[in-house]
From TrEMBL:
It comes from Reyranella soli. This is Rieske domain-containing protein. Transmembrane segments: none annotated. Residues 21-124 form the Rieske domain. One of its GO terms (molecular function) is oxidoreductase activity.
């Protein structure tokens, strides 16, 4: 009898599928002292090594279970504040001051997470037992190309992180929930949608309407599960092309999500300077108001709201994205089971 059940799949989806990178926190969260966060079903500790690079381990000393975040960072290792046990960034115990030479020394017994710091965010790779080595971390054009300028927007929402993905994969909600927005007050209130395949995912788009409103959303899997959308700017939005949003979302707990959005625009020269000034002085507040509308709505959803839905044509993208995540989770669990490894 298989151990991979609907419940085990659901448990993994709640914590986030494995073998991908997740944004953990904005870079400014991490200063000179270690910090403790809950992410992806773990309590983790982060600190910076002597070169300033972020390090992330499970926040659990293998000796007695004390939080390593209460200890002292020592470059590539951290000393537990309870008994001084030193754990290296790869999860190996290197020194037990109270009992030198004991069997705990040299043992790799703390879960470690490869990290990268890019675009103002600390990313961590969450691999399973079959895939401990990180895959390549690739960024969408709006973050990787110097032709774009961007601002990071970070917040935390009460609720399942998957509702945030659902919200972004639902362009039609912009026509109603955000109808007073300076950038979403145009276009038809009815639409027919289609799904278009791409090399890294798919686009969910309105038929016959482009560059009018929130007309399409794209899901990209490039080592991170990204959401990308584009909103036309009116003349009051200043110089430059359309407004792009790149999003990625990480579970904190079953009822709390870390929400990362990069707000991007293709501008250069004096236009870049003008847009960045205009954004900070006028446009940012407008975009926060729109995001707050989403937050307030989603935080009122019941945890089981997605079990009592009646979906229609506008929800093809949501249904498709949910299948993508479920298929990944099921495949990962079956591979672990076949290898005789514990289901995560």
């Amino acid at each position: 009898m298989t151990a991979v059940t609907n419940q085990s799949i659901g448990n993994l989806l709640t914590k986030g599928v494995r073998n991908v990178w997740y944004p953990i926190c904005p870079s400014h969260f991490l200063g000179e002292k270690p910090i403790s966060l809950r992410r992806l079903g773990f309590k983790v500790v982060l600190w910076r090594d002597v070169a300033g690079r972020p390090v992330m381990l499970e926040d659990h000393c293998p000796h007695r279970g004390a939080p390593l975040s209460m200890g002292m960072p020592l470059g590539d290792r951290i000393a537990c504040g309870y008994h001084g046990v030193e754990v290296r960034k790869d999860g190996t115990v290197v020194t037990v001051p109270g009992s030198p030479g004991c069997k705990l020394e040299g043992k790799n017994c703390v879960k470690s997470f490869p990290t990268e710091e890019r675009h103002g965010v600390i990313f961590a790779y969450a691999g399973d037992a079959l895939h401990p080595e990180p895959i390549e971390l690739q960024f969408p054009e709006q973050l990787s190309s110097p032709e774009y300028s961007s601002f990071l927007c970070y917040c935390e929402w009460e609720g399942d992180y998957r509702y945030v993905y659902d919200n972004v994969m639902d362009p039609m909600h912009g026509t109603f929930l955000h109808k007073q927005s300076h950038s979403m007050s145009f276009g038809d209130t009815t639409a027919t949608f289609r799904v278009r395949e791409t090399p890294t995912g798919f686009v969910f788009e309105k038929e016959g309407q482009r560059n009018v409103n929130f007309d399409w959303t794209e899901f990209l899997d490039t080592g991170v599960h990204w959401m990308r959308l584009e909103i036309p700017y009116p003349a009051t939005g200043g110089p430059g092309g359309n407004f792009h949003i790149i999003g990625a979302y990480t579970p904190i707990t079953e009822r709390r999500a870390a929400v990362f959005h990069w707000r991007c625009r293709k501008v250069d020269g004096w236009q870049r300077d003008t847009w960045r000034f205009l954004y900070k002085n006028r446009l940012e507040a407008r975009h926060w108001r729109v995001l707050e509308q989403d937050r307030v709505m989603l935080e009122q959803f019941e945890p089981d709201a997605n079990l009592r839905e009646n979906l229609y044509q506008h929800d093809m993208g949501v249904a498709r994205l949910r299948r993508v995540f479920r298929t990944k989770a099921e495949a990962q669990l079956k591979a672990l089971e076949a290898a005789g490894l514990p289901l995560q």
